[in-house]
Design brief:
heterodimer, A: 289 residues, mainly alpha, MetI-like fold, elongated, disordered N terminus, B: 677 residues, alpha/beta, Rossmann fold, eight-stranded mixed beta sheet, disordered C terminus
């Protein structure tokens, strides 16, 4: 009996979600963005298997060639096929940027919930620390972390980006939580004796998910950008990785003669950032409608 | 005077069809609505939420939301076909011919522009040059009885009270001498005493200017006071229309009959009988049924009603009803509700709740705000204490202090004789369980991400210590007790109507067998028919469980229905406390008297109006002596300004805070208490 009665109700409950999915799938900017991201994810997974040449192998007889029918994007000063390197170059960035964003989102959400819900001294203290961290530029933070860890690795970049992004996300979440915490359902929960962690994570968190999701996708776009920046100035990814930013570092001194070695990886980075932003925009429109 | 006034009707709606496009389908919101407003006439449009009142208003000014549109029919204002207007003419029409006053004056005014400049803008739009516009704005504010227009003009909207804001909006609306003034629930957000003043103002201005008015309201009392003719709207259909007195005294449509019966009035109390309700729900938006729109909820409906739509037919001169059986409408059978047995409250024993010397002072930027001052009251088991007063009187502060959300500055609340810890964090689970609350707004009171089942199970776990199958079983019982179906349990709040949500909130409060439930305006966000059902439910639960209520409401009819005793609060002080009938029938405190006379009733006439001048003073600097002396119509002299009267028992079980002796009050009030025959 109960299952019979429940069935139509449950389908009703998912109507809203399904409608949101449909709205997303109807949005051209989401579709284009998702297609580009998907393309780079496929490249990252397949890597060497789909590239016409080995992206790390030096073809000593074909140095610094302009784009041609054999080498679509030309070759660099070590004779490596730029097209192959661009295809293979998405792997590291697609691991680092989402990982850093995820860590920052988890930390930021927790901080935002705690400060926004508890208020008082905890809020004042943490908020001031957040303000302070927000004032530190990315590069300075990178130098500090490298100095502290004593090494440069993939983890350096992840840690640096997480530390820089956590306060931003915490602020967004705190603002959303402030709005929710004043609602009567929160008071009702307190009046039945709920402890703060339950109220924060089981009552408030589900209601602030939309702004968190939007903020996370925006941060992902910035994270890709930040990975490229940090790599470019020498933190994190190192040659001979075919990473796009590493390629730019390797080749930018030859820019005037071999523009293709820099232009194509740069376009690749741009395409990924723009694609993530397109997705982020459409998610925002659908969630905040 | 605009030229059109003398000839054409102010408004003619002819077979107006309005639809909203939702999820790719056109849903009818107004179906063939026709009515006319004569020049200088005041026409009331009544109906519950979702019946299309505001849509009608928006359609008239061509301001429908983007997914809305007029399907067919015509609208003409002062002889002009509104639907045929081009872009330029439409702007001109909105600027010169029609004005609109909305429910919330706070959002109708631009918060960052001074009031004077905003009102002057209404004139500059009409081509009045700057300096003269300011002068005319000053005159307009004077006309809406704003005492000190000069200083009001230099203030920002947020520095004015709600009543003052609405006056400014009305001043702007009348700037152009409109052919039609549309008032959409203009006083719904205001306190009763302020509402009375604004309504007086509107009727006075209307008489002076002979403006035609379309007055939209859900409140039949307000309509009865303000309008000469009324149309009753149900599910986008005009179901009855006629002169106000005729329609309200001799309704000929079962919906009107039901609506009138739902309102607690005429001194009805919970131990006299149950309130009538209208069973069922409003058809969902754009649901098309072949027969009468009201058939599914009508106890008189037969096969014909389900298949054939009745026409809007004359039942008397100028009185029309859309019912096959209009001559029998008043015989509409009452819904069978089992009578309940309310045991009388025993006040000999120990009170359940005792508030002693409760005082709450908020510290705000250096100065103190006295929200509650020396409140003493008791609530016995199974009793309802009604709490009335204007906004800012401290009703909610009192409730929140009792619940431990706010910490009293002085004083203590005790439960069953034991003092309660002042903060809820310090209270035991048993103490938390004993005191629960039902909030005003069921939308924010329920977590919109949780299913009803999850909401109830969590409360059962925390308040009744139940888990697993036992909790499931209890959740079903609980849902059944508040008349929720099993299907509701799997739904989320957004899928439920306001009344159902409030039932869930009540079920949650009753999860752990509470001793006292604070009801903070639990029905003021609901329609009257739903309100009646919720009040019935609360009374049933009280009869079954001998639970006590602290019932806060600004609706005096509701408070009188449900309360055993009533406390009247003004500026954080109890002014009067006594049995419901005694407080209502008098002799009563001058403030209570003013509150009562401010309420427009459906029956019309009744009490002579006593008006309170001005707004409730700030609690940051309360008046000296009796805090009510600044507005008191019965002030006797210097003593009122110098000495605060104590709250004394003026007759058995009836406390009052007034310098005027009871017998004198009785004499004074006897002259106005007689109904105006």
């Amino acid at each position: 009996m109960s299952t019979v009665a429940a069935a139509p109700a449950r389908s009703e409950a998912s109507v809203a979600r399904r409608e949101r999915m449909q709205a997303l799938l109807r949005s051209p900017s989401f579709l284009i963005g998702a297609a580009v991201i998907l393309f780079w994810i496929v490249c990252a997974i397949l890597g060497d298997r789909i590239t016409p040449f080995d992206p790390r192998f030096d073809q000593t007889n074909d140095l610094s060639q302009a784009p041609s029918s054999e080498h679509f994007f030309g070759t660099d000063h070590l004779g490596r096929d730029v097209f192959s390197r661009v295809l293979a170059g998405s792997r590291d960035i697609l691991l680092i940027a989402p990982a850093a964003t995820l860590i920052a989102t988890i930390l930021g959400t927790t901080l935002g919930l705690v400060t926004g819900y508890l208020r008082g001294i905890a809020d004042d203290t943490v908020s001031r620390v957040i303000d302070a961290v927000l004032a530190i530029p990315l590069i300075l933070m990178a130098v500090t972390v490298v100095a502290a860890l004593g090494s440069r690795s993939v983890w350096t970049i992840i840690i640096v980006i997480s530390i820089v992004f956590t306060p931003v996300i915490a602020r967004t979440v705190r603002a959303a939580v402030l709005g929710e915490a004043g609602l009567d359902y929160v008071e009702a929960a307190r009046l039945r004796g709920e402890r703060s962690p339950y109220v924060m994570f089981s009552e408030v968190l589900p209601n602030v998910m939309p702004p968190i999701l939007v903020e996370a996708t925006i941060r992902l776009g910035y994270a890709i950008f930040a990975v490229a920046t940090l790599t470019f100035i020498g933190f994190g990814l190192q040659p001979p990785s075919p990473d796009w930013a590493v390629q730019i570092v390797d080749n930018y001194q030859y820019l005037s003669e071999e523009w293709w070695t820099v232009l194509f990886p740069a376009i690749a980075i741009a395409s990924l950032v723009v694609a993530v932003n397109l997705v982020s925009d459409s998610v925002q429109q659908v969630l905040e409608r | 005077m605009s030229l059109a006034v003398s000839t054409a009707p102010a408004l003619v709606l002819n077979e107006l069809e309005v639809f909203y496009r939702v999820r790719g389908r056109d849903r009818h919101v107004l179906r063939g609505v026709s009515f006319e407003i004569a020049p200088g006439e005041s026409y009331g449009l009544v109906g519950e939420s979702g019946c299309g009142k505001s849509t009608a208003a928006l359609a008239i000014v061509r301001y429908l939301p983007r997914n809305g549109g007029v399907g067919s029919g015509s609208i003409s204002v002062a002889g002009r076909d509104v639907l045929a207007l081009g872009e330029r003419d439409l702007r001109e029409f909105r600027a010169r011919s029609v004005s609109m006053v909305y429910q919330n004056p706070g959002s109708a005014l631009n918060p960052s522009i001074r009031v004077g400049a905003q009102v002057a803008e209404a004139f500059t739009v009409l081509g009045v040059p700057g300096g003269e516009a300011t002068e005319r704005a000053r005159a307009a504010l004077e006309r809406v009885q704003i005492a000190d227009p000069g200083s009001v003009m230099s203030r920002y909207p947020h520095q004015l009270s709600g009543g003052m804001q609405q006056r400014a909006v009305i001043a702007m609306a009348l700037a152009k001498d409109p052919a039609l003034l549309i008032l959409d629930e203009p006083t719904t957000g205001l306190d009763a005493t302020v509402e009375a003043e604004v309504l007086d103002l509107v009727s006075q201005l209307q008489a002076e200017l002979s403006t035609s008015v379309l007055f939209i309201s859900h409140n039949l009392g307000v309509i009865s006071k303000m309008c000469s003719r009324v149309g009753i709207l149900y599910a986008g259909r005009l179901v009855e229309e006629g002169p106000v007195e005729t329609v309200l005294q001799d309704p000929r449509h079962p919906y009107t009959v039901g609506l009138l019966r739902c309102i607690p009035r005429g001194g009805v109390r919970k131990d006299h009988g149950r309130l009538d309700t209208i069973p069922g729900f409003l058809p969902s938006l754009g649901e098309d049924a072949p027969g009468c729109v009201f058939a599914s909820r009508c106890a008189l409906a037969d096969e014909r009603c389900g298949s054939e739509e009745p026409p809007l037919a004359a039942v008397a001169s100028g009185h029309e009803s859309r019912c096959w059986y209009h001559e029998r409408a008043q015989e509409l059978p009452r819904e069978e509700v089992a009578d309940i047995d309310l045991a009388p409250v025993d006040r000999t024993g120990e009170p359940l709740i005792e508030l002693s010397k409760l005082t709450k002072i908020f510290k705000q930027r250096g100065h103190e705000v006295h929200a509650l001052t020396d409140v003493n009251a008791a609530i016995w088991p199974g009793e309802t204490l009604g709490l009335v007063g204007e906004s800012g009187s401290g009703k909610t502060t009192l409730a929140r202090t009792l619940l431990g959300i706010l910490e009293p500055t002085v004083g203590i609340a005790s439960l069953d004789g034991d003092p309660l810890p002042t903060r809820y964090q310090k209270r035991s689970q048993a103490e938390l369980r004993a005191l629960q609350i039902v909030f005003q707004n069921p939308d924010s009171a329920l977590n919109r991400r949780h299913s009803v089942r999850r909401i109830l199970l969590r409360s059962l776990k925390k308040l009744a210590g139940l888990g697993g199958r036992a909790a499931d079983q209890r959740a079903l019982e609980l849902a059944d007790r508040v008349r929720l179906t099993e299907r509701t349990l799997t739904q989320k709040p957004v899928q439920l109507s306001g009344g159902l949500k409030q039932r869930v909130a009540i079920a949650r409060a009753f999860a752990g067998d509470p001793k006292l439930v604070v009801c903070d305006e639990p029905t003021s966000a609901l329609d009257v028919s739903v309100q009646a059902a919720i009040l019935n439910l609360l009374v049933e639960l009280q009869a079954e469980q001998r639970v006590s209520y602290l019932f806060i409401s600004h609706d005096l009819g509701v408070v009188r229905y449900i309360s055993d005793r009533i406390a009247v609060l003004y500026l954080g002080r109890i002014q009067e406390l006594g049995p419901a009938d005694v407080v209502f029938d008098g002799p009563h405190h001058p403030y209570t008297e003013a509150l009562l006379s401010a309420v427009p009733t459906v029956d019309g006439g009744g009490r002579e109006r006593i008006r309170l001048e001005g707004d409730i003073p700030s609690a940051a600097s309360p008046p000296s002596g009796c805090v009510f002396h600044t507005r008191c119509p019965r002030k006797i002299g210097a003593i009122c300004e110098e000495t605060e009267p104590p709250l004394v028992e003026v007759e058995p079980a009836h406390d009052m805070r007034c310098h005027i002796p009871l017998d004198e009050l009785r004499r004074l009030q006897a002259t106005v208490l007689e109904p105006v025959a």
